[in-house]
Structure prediction request, 967 residues.
Amino acid sequence: MSLKKINGLEITPTHSINQVRYGCTLGAMYSAAAIPGAIPIAHCGPGCADKQFMALAFYNGFQGGGYGGGAVPPSVNAGEKEVVFGGNERLEELIKATLKIMRGDLYVVLTGCIGELVGDDVGSVVSPFQQRGVPICYAETGGFKGNNFTGHELVTRAIIDQFVKDYDGKKEETLVNVWSELPFQNTFWRGDLAEIKRILEGIGFKVNILFGFGSKGADEWKTIPKAKFNLVISPWLGLETAKHLSEKYSQPFLHYPVIPIGAKETSKFLRTVADFAGLKKETVEEFIRQEEKEYYYYLEHFSDFYAEYWWGLPARYGIVGDSAYVLAVSKFVVNQLGLIPASHIITDNPPEQYREGIEKEFRSLSHDVSEEVIFVEDGYWVKKILENTDFGHKPPIIFGTTWERDTVKKFGGQVVEIGFPASYEVVINRSYVGYRGAFALLEKIFTAAISASA
Amino acid sequence: MSTITENFRQKINLKVADCETREQRLGTIIGWTGRASELSEISNKARCGAGGRRECSLCETRGPFTQGSVCSEQMVECQAGNVRNAVLVQHSPIGCAAGQPMYNGIYRNGLAIRGLPVENLLITSTNLNESDMIFGAILKLHQTIQDVYERYKPEAIFVSTSCATAIIADDIESASAEEQEKLGIPVIPLYCEGFRSKHWSTGFDATQHGILRQIVRKNPTKKQDDLINVINLWGSDVFTPMFAELGLRVNYVVDLATVEQLAQLSEAAATVGFCYTLSTYMAAALEQEFGIPEIKAPQPYGFAGTDAWLREIGRVTHREDKVEAYIEKEHARVRPLLEKLQDKLKGIKGYVATGSAYSHGLISVMRELGIAVNGSLVFHHDPVYDSGDSRQDSLKHLVDNYGDVPSFHVSNRQQYQFYGLLKRINPDFILIRHNGLAPLASRLGIPAAPLGDEHIAIGYQGMVNLGETILEVLAHRKFHEDLRDHVTLPYSHWWLQQDDPYILSKHPELIES
Prediction:
């Protein structure tokens, strides 16, 4: 546990977690459910699947379970019998019944705490089905192994190794696999992935977006090995997958830590990716020109409000959430809006080896802005840190979660719920990234700021 | 009147830290299909026939296919985790803590509809990892209990088990006892690991068991003769105005109560509930241990149920005259309102998919409104409640007073079965509690009224409330019918063609083909 001092506040976290800000490893059920046509099968207790659903997909933007989530996923619902005698037989029976009753293009078995603690051999249950050609794989995602970020990469790897399998054919010159936001955990992943796909296609790529509406599901996953490279757009999530794929299919990867928001960041992002892949410059520049033309048409109109709104706008911000959005949103509001940073709190527990890289990004938020970032997961400390932050003479804007509502009320400011859990936001396909998402974010920030003013 | 089950009735054992599961105490089942009247009859036989310890001859359907359900620990979160100025410590890996956002949302909105200050709940997880599974995690439990004590200075700390900590056999009872000694406040172990019971309602009992053992005042020095314990969830405050007319006050427990409100349970004049599924354990134990009479009557739904329930309250609290005056006044006030609603609801078919006893009550109200109810799905069935008293036989009360329900099913929130049941009945709307079933109904073009405020249908005014709610939800049909025409269900063609949602229970060999 890292110890830090913020404005005289000694931060001394224990293992305890109040105000949870992610699911468990089994929460990666929702990585499986995010693939169109895929159905997760939960080898766990009776309540696990429901908890992950209600947390990640319901009280988080009310995203909904869709085809394979919600109350749909088959579950062993282990009882005393499975704990005492093991759950292999019950799982086998459940898989057979699933194949009879459900209609999935891909089934992903995820183990919970019970199966792993009593030593069920899930591999031996699943492999006969695989040998029969059933599109099914399994991941050992016992909840004590970590959070749903950990689970996401376990599930991704399981699908690649057991379903996509080996490949030594040709690569497609312009095909790219995208690994970015964590589906469902990131409240806005659906809209965001759609925008990322749109802009990459705009400069000439064919995109395997892999999750969400823009993905062709299991068929698209089968084409992963054909991609020329892997594009990781996040501070750290997806790097394990990209490394694995570079070994497995000899695919290089480009790591781009900042999910781009706004024209400046997005154009820079597109140029970097195009350069890496050796795309034709003219196509890329033409797309950027068109997008920027549209972007600045709208920004110009917005500027009347931003330049001369009478009743005051927030000047400082604090931000709490997953490293991906904390970094992306900070970059945008500092560089596009000129907001003054006051507090950056990252709660997705990035693996130790990636933390230095994340800290480096915050030290160069802008040419004249260097910031420190704090890694904590326990909501008790999040609240303490915010309460000990100097936000200046007027209420700040806080980017955070439902957990921050009470704290922000005390400041007299507004919370913009940008991450899990966002229980007072309804999100369908709203995006906060790219050229187009930036405006949704601006609308949200300033509607929140002024609607409470009178 | 309660002779039928005298010999069945077992004493609730508050001497031990863990409470018996529903299936052990009551013979609870989670799968069954038939007519409501049949289930009522065989439940009666099961009660009488056993003549001893919780033998139950109720046949339970069990099939090879199951979808994710709900666990007891979730019910502990939603009760112990929603007590004000107390903290629930979840002794578990982080996945169990994924319940926090949901129960926080419920807590916040529950506080808001009761006019109480809105705040986040304080549930805290011990957040266990892989090495804890190998070496044990009791030290982490001690640390988290100390953390929450220092942080929040609560008046009580609940400690819930999880599947993981039950399997690694952490001794949470000793740890809680040590901390209680050290901190001087109740530290209460709750045994609620999900695999322990086949039905989540055991989690209600586990919470109530802990409260009875360690919070309720053992030797109350005073008696509050006008105080009625109301065992409920987060529902709006409909009991205060109703009881005020009888000169009674309300003590709402468990959700949104303070620790002191829980402590005074043993000082009240009587205990009532809005749903016997929820209240059976606490109410029976309060009577057994402290002599607080449980109101043994039908639940307060519809004219028949509400009349009988109020009269029993009047008898027990010696307010017969006031009760009669109230009944007369309310009948006169509500009847014309109901007639108007009945006109508007003519020809409408409804369906109920909720917890067991609650469904019995709601069907009564729907029939008062003139709505045809030919089917219901309940998440479990208790052939008897803890009092063992036949006046509380909510299913029999429904069948005797409002007629049979021909398509009556027990299914612990199994969406795949719900498909066939809805297809059979084809209702105009459904009433639900718990998430997971309404989304399927929606995809079939059927709107649902989610009864988040569980008090909405209670008493005389409840009939009017429910009627209005149903009219509102019927207007949503446009949305759902449009959706129905544009979605694909995740079920196989074979399953969608089946007429019997329980076919796999009868022919499990079908999964081999």
In short: The CA atoms of residues 185 and 271 of chain A lie 29 Å apart.
